[in-house]
Amino acid sequence: MIMEVQNSDPGQFEKNLAYLRAIVELGEGFDLLFLSGSPIALEQVRHRLDESPIEDVELTRVHFTNPLEMAVLPERLLGLGGTSEGRRLVLVTASGTEDELRAGWTSALSMLNERRNTIVASTPHVLCLAGSAWLPILASDCAPDLWSIRTAVACFPDPPGLQYQIATQTRSSRSKANIHDAERLEHLARVLASSFRREEQSSRVSLLLRASKIRIANGDMEGARRSLSDAIELCRASEDEEARCRALALMANLHVFKGEYDEAMALQRDILERLNSIQDERGVAHMLGEIGDTLLRSGNIEEARDQHRARIQILEKLGSQMEVAQAYSALAVVDERAGKLESALRLHERVAEVFGALSDYRSLAQTYAQMAEIRRVREEFSEALSLRLRELALRKEMGDVQSQAGVVDVIATIHISMGRQDLALDAYAEVIKMAREIADEPMRIAALEKIADLQLGCSRDRASATAFAHVLRSSVHGIISYTGEISRIAQQRGMDEDGQISECLRVLEMESHILKTQIQNQSFYLGWNAIVLRQEAVDVVAIIERILRIFGPIAENRSIRFLLKSDVSTVIHVDGEAIELVLTNIIENALKYAFYGTEIQIEVRTRASHLVVSVRDLGHGLTADQEELFVPFKRYRALEPVQTIAGAGIGLFVCRVIVRSHGGTIEFSSKLIRQRSSRSRPEAHLVTFSVRLPIAPKTGPAAEE
Question: From CA 215, how far away is CA 257, in angstroms rounded?
């Protein structure tokens, strides 16, 4: 009794389940029921039978994770025995690829055939459900006598998404395959040797080819050559030209791995002729790509490009978007080797669009990685980082933690190249977390070693930079002091009647103060997480007036006026040097970005328990939000003239650290207020920075950033 099943019928599972229950309930004596399907589908059967058991039937499951072990199935059945009160239902399932299961079930059914009388005599009330059995095996030469027993065959459809699960499991198992896996596959191939059926011989070839790939990946070239030779001989005997081409292609790859490019090329051109003779255009296109890769490895870049272009022409005629995209990706690699990085980028961008449209996240992630590497080589680190983050998002979508960790590790190196050691340390910490999750101890140890090296390098760099900044600051203090002394002496001796000496000394003093501000910014940045604040009575307006006097020459040269407003007591308890650095940075920024001939307004007022200092300028707007603007080394003024204005990009970060350490806040706003009269000039924005500082002395340790 055989039941044909169409997997497209959404109600087939329920129909089959009812069919199964009827056979079990009506069955007498020994019945052998073969139930075909995947372990996942049959697990659903077991679950449903557990929920609604059949009267007087005990359910037992036997599962094989290795098809090689399935020959022991008769002994497992004999070991179970019968039941005293009813019958036993044994659900047998196995995991593996189609070729592995074909060999495994061939072995199992052959042994069942030999032991059938013993099984019937010892366990007359057993109903055996054989999962993942391939129906052609049941009618093969290994198990004809099984049909003498009352037998039924049914098939359960796979649940939705099963093919993706199987593909994922297969990729995972192959990535971790070792020599023992190759030996297992070769043994399964030998199990099928006694059969003369074409399906079994085709499976033998597939198993041998997989075994050879594993041996090549593990460096066992001689073992791979033996398996490939056996596969090629089988193909010659069966006159299976297509399988023979696959085996010869792997043999060519073996030569490539050994660096024997001439031998590989000879085999590949022979395969190309065979594929042309059987008019396999897709196979021809694939082999052109293989030849192109071999030429590229041997250094023949132009010939490699010609082969890949010929491949693309065939695939475009066949109309496969995916294959065309893969071919263009290979061509981009050729351009990279030729140093044509811009051309390679354009090709990768074109490929990324196709993979994105096809929702092929794995290929899209790989394309982003290739584009990021080109950007990194060109020292375009921000673009490389952006691409790697997009790749990481795709890896997370796929749930591949191993590859996520690899991407995060690369992101850490990009941060290091950009001088962001703190972010690199955070990235390595994330790698350690992922390594623990997947129990990858070598990865965890490697990340710990990178953290140790980076921390040691950071400590040395910070110590050296801090010491250097201290020396520079002392020198600048000396220049400022001597500038004032020279001015005083010149006036006493009447040496500056026309004021030129005083003006030059004033500019020199101003430039020295600007340099002092940059040095202080660097010092605070290097040690921002260990700030120690003093608290003293400080007149904020007096600090602002001193800053305005220093920046006077710059303001005059740009026809900019300062307007200081304050009608309140401006004495508060803060670290005077630190707050002066904050106000200097903000006023200097306003002076840099304000339009020629405008006014910079500085207002000091009280709000509840805080003193608020607001600095407003009319000029280029800001394009960042509150968080982005205070990120080190980023600058967000809107238009091109800003790119010519000097700055290290850490001033506002230092300002926020200092203000927060005092228990205050710093905020900004940027508002378009009017269109300027000249079309050649940009729009005007009113940019306001506001610093709020507590009036009362701050108690307790400094607030951490």
Answer: 12
